[in-house]
Design goal:
Blueprint: H1 3-18, H2 29-43, E1 47-59, E2 65-77, E3 81-87, E4 92-97, E5 101-106, E6 111-116, H3 121-132, H4 140-143, E7 154-165, E8 168-177, E9 180-187, E10 194-201, E11 209-218, E12 236-237, H5 245-250
Parallel strand pairs: 6-12
Antiparallel strand pairs: 1-2, 1-11, 2-3, 3-4, 4-5, 5-6, 7-8, 8-9, 9-10, 10-11
C-alpha cells in the first residue's frame, strides 16, 4: 500500500472519529422537553390531590381481553405523606403513609397490613416493589423527571398535536421504549400536569392497554388525619410476605 493511500485512510478515520453523532430523528426534542418540564413541575408540587379513572386490560383464560375500571383518589403532602383510595365494583383498597409506616387496608374484607416505611414517598415506592412486589398507585407521578425515569430509554418521542381532555386544553405526545408504547396528554399553560396516560404493552401478543385520566387540585390543604389509619373495631391485622431473595436479586 503506498504512503499517500495510508495517509488518506488515517485522515478519513480521524474525521469519522471526531464527527458529532447524528441526532435520532425519531426523537423530537419538543416532546422530550415537555416530558422533562412536566417532571420538574410535579417535583415542585408539595401538596396536591388527584382524582383518577383507571382502565386496565386483562386476559381471560379463554384468551379474550376484557377491560376493567376503577376510581382513584390520591392525596399527597411531600415529602412523606400519601393516601390512596381505590374503588371498583370488585374490590376496594386504601393505602396510608405517614412517613413512618405504610398501611394497606381492604375495607370489604376487613383486613389490613402495616409495615415500617422509609422517610420519603419515592423511597417507599422502591421499597414496596423490591420487598413485596407491590406497585404504589400512580407511581409514575413521583418518578417522572428523576433518574428512575430516564429519557435515554426512549426510542421514539413525537408531538402529536393539541387535544381536549375533559374540557381542558392539552398537548398530546407519543413515546416508545422497549416493550411499551405510551401516550401522554399534558395540560397547556403554567401548570403542565398530566391529564391522561395511555400505555400499550407491545411485547404481549394481545397488546393490553392501561389508561389513566386525571383531574388535579394543586396546593390542597390536607391535615394529618387524612394520612392516618385508624382501624375499625372489626378490622383484623394480617402479615405480608416478602419476596424470596432470588426474586429480589432479579429486580
Amino acid at each position: 500500500m503506498n504512503k499517500s493511500l495510508i495517509v488518506s485512510i488515517v485522515v478519513a478515520a480521524a474525521a469519522t472519529a471526531n464527527a458529532e453523532p447524528k441526532p435520532n430523528k425519531a426523537i423530537e426534542q419538543k416532546a422530550v422537553d415537555a416530558l422533562e418540564s412536566m417532571g420538574t413541575f410535579l417535583r415542585n408540587q408539595q401538596s396536591f390531590e388527584v382524582k383518577s379513572t383507571i382502565e386496565t386490560d386483562y386476559d381471560l383464560d379463554n384468551g379474550q381481553t376484557v377491560r376493567l375500571a376503577k376510581q382513584g383518589d390520591l392525596h399527597v403532602r411531600r415529602p412523606d405523606h400519601l393516601r390512596m383510595d381505590s374503588t371498583s365494583e370488585r374490590k376496594e383498597r386504601q393505602f396510608f403513609y405517614d412517613g413512618k409506616s405504610f398501611v394497606m387496608y381492604a375495607p370489604k374484607m376487613g383486613y389490613f397490613t402495616r409495615v415500617d416505611a422509609p422517610p420519603t414517598i419515592l423511597e417507599l415506592a422502591d421499597d414496596l416493589e423490591t420487598r413485596y412486589g407491590i406497585e404504589l398507585p400512580l407511581v409514575d407521578l413521583f418518578r417522572w423527571g428523576t433518574p428512575d425515569s430516564p429519557t435515554d430509554e426512549l426510542t421514539s418521542a413525537t408531538y402529536v398535536g393539541p387535544a381536549t381532555i375533559d374540557g381542558v386544553a392539552t398537548d398530546q405526545y407519543a413515546f416508545r421504549q422497549k416493550g411499551v408504547d405510551w401516550q401522554l396528554w399534558i395540560e397547556r399553560g403554567d401548570k403542565p400536569v398530566p391529564r391522561k396516560l395511555l400505555l400499550t404493552t407491545t411485547d404481549d401478543p394481545s397488546r393490553p392497554q392501561h389508561s389513566v385520566e386525571m383531574s388535579w387540585t394543586l396546593d390542597a390543604k390536607q391535615p394529618d388525619s387524612t394520612f392516618t389509619f385508624n382501624p375499625p373495631r372489626n378490622a383484623a391485622q394480617i402479615g405480608i410476605t416478602e419476596l424470596a431473595p432470588q426474586n429480589v436479586s432479579q429486580r
